[in-house]
Input
Amino acid sequence: MNIGHEAINANEQQDTKEQRIQERMKYYVQFQDFVIPWYYLAAIDQYERNIQQVRQDIPKKEGVIAIQFSNEYWAGALNPVEDDTIPNSIQLFGGMGLDGNGDGVASLDDDEDVMFTMAKYLRMYGHGVQDFKLALWDYYKNEQVVNQITVIAKLFEKFGTIDLDANYFPIPKNYVYSYAGTWGANRGWGGRRIHEGTDIFANYGTPILSTSYGVVEVIGWNEFGGWRIGIRDHHNSYHYYAHLHSFDDSIKQGDIVEAGQTIGYVGSTGYGKEGTAGKFPPHLHYGLYKFNGRTEWAYDPYPSLLRWERNK
Output
């Protein structure tokens, strides 16, 4: 009986997720045009949703769209009515808020008004990638934010959908491996530090899979991690794969990868100059880092690995 309830709940959750995706896509497509593609709008909305989930100082926006404008930006810095919704007076005081659905009101709480305002802002800069980056810089004033939103836009454009939440355990089926929660354990090489990740022990040459969709941000040698790959996904997460024996021949910096794609092979490199290997048993060091719009920090990947392993 419990199994039946779990199946029903899973189906309901899937239906709800698909409905949310459809609702968001409706807005993105509604306000795109030949200058502003839907994935630019979707990327900004996804980024805003990401930071609202991890920042206590930013309220979670109600509604389908997560984009939030400040009252000052929306109504104008000199507007005596902080929450002004009258288009003419907003324009008079230099505010950016617009009426996106023709109801005569420009409201921060109306998803159509918000999306129309963001589309109009982007449209002022042009349609190229560099135009998009400049618009993001002028709005957020943070290079890492610009890079993160650009990554999200690339992923949405490449796969033609915002539904990229699939995750894979980094070691394929039918390979022998073992791992445990080693977060925070002491590490001594290179100075006293803690272990920021989970070690998955496996044989030399065992394939390593990308745990998510993402863009290859770094690839190459690191004296701590040896041959390593860093992949950034559309949830503001950075996935770090270290101590590799080698990379897959098809992988290079800037590439877009799919969840479950082979990116490299287990080794024992690191703890020294380029090419150093064999100072410890072969294993994959897997780390997760989250960017909140201001800083990036490591968090324990062990619970996520357990969940992905069950889904194998």
